[in-house]
Structure formats: structure tokens, C-alpha cells
Write a structure and sequence with these properties.
Largest sheet: 5 strands, antiparallel
Order of helices and strands: EHHHHEEEE
Mean pLDDT: 96
Radius of gyration: 16 Å
Shape: elongated
Distance between the termini: 11 Å
Number of strands: 5
């Protein structure tokens, strides 16, 4: 992890979400809001379709750097702004792409900036992870 340059990509991936992914996440999280599985409810409240849970999107984004870190316990801080929804189509699902770049480096660790997008649009703003240096 040493000698990394600002802007250097340290990890990236694309995660495919399906309606089944949303149902599984709902069961694990206890968040059974029908906007995450029912098209009629989503439409009735003015949404463009069934949405992925924000915390699911946030979690899959940060998990992108875990293999690179080698130890998730090195994550000190993580925050995002939810800027756009991830609409999960009944048939085609949704692809969420995450690119993790070095944003800042200091003596104690670094900040990793995550660019999280769906269908060409950034869905998490100011997604930043503060990580401790390797021992």
C-alpha cells in the first residue's frame, strides 16, 4: 500500500443486481419497504421504478476495496451522500460500477475515493473511505 500516487486506481468492479438480490438484502437487513420490490408501489410514490436499497449500494461499494486492503479492520471511516437511485429492472436488473482511487495520503493512512455509478450516472456522491496504514 506504500508508494501510491494520488489518483491511482486500487480496485474496481461491476456488481449485477437483480430483483432477487433486493429480496435477499431485504431479508438480511429487515428493510421490507415495498419500493424495493413492488413496481406498483414505486410508481404510486413517483419513483422511476423499484430501487436498490441505499445501504446495499453503499455496502457493495466499500466492499470493493476489502481484497486490496487485505483486512477490513483497516477501514476507519466511511461516508457517502445518496445522490441518485439505482433502478433495478425486472428483466435486466442493474449494474453498479465502482472505481476506487487514492484521494489523499498521510503518515497514518489514506483516503480512498469511490466513484459509484449506474447506467452512466454517479449514484453515491462524496463516497470516501479513510483507511489505516498497514502494520
Amino acid at each position: 500500500m506504500t508508494n501510491l500516487d494520488i489518483g491511482e486506481v486500487v480496485a474496481e468492479r461491476t456488481v449485477h443486481l437483480t430483483r432477487t438480490s433486493l429480496v435477499r438484502y431485504a431479508g438480511a437487513s429487515g428493510d421490507f419497504n415495498p419500493i424495493h420490490y413492488n413496481d406498483a408501489v414505486a410508481e404510486r410514490v413517483g419513483l422511476p421504478g423499484v430501487l436498490a436499497h441505499g445501504m446495499l449500494t453503499m455496502g457493495l461499494a466499500v466492499e470493493t476495496i476489502v481484497e486490496w486492503l487485505g483486512d477490513s479492520g483497516r477501514i476507519l471511516e466511511y461516508g457517502v451522500r445518496f445522490t441518485r437511485p439505482v433502478v433495478v429492472d425486472t428483466e435486466s436488473g442493474a449494474d453498479v460500477t465502482v472505481v476506487a482511487k487514492v484521494g489523499a495520503v498521510d503518515d497514518d493512512g489514506m483516503r480512498i475515493d469511490l466513484t459509484v455509478s449506474h447506467d452512466g450516472t454517479t449514484v453515491l456522491g462524496k463516497a470516501q473511505v479513510r483507511v489505516r496504514s498497514a502494520s
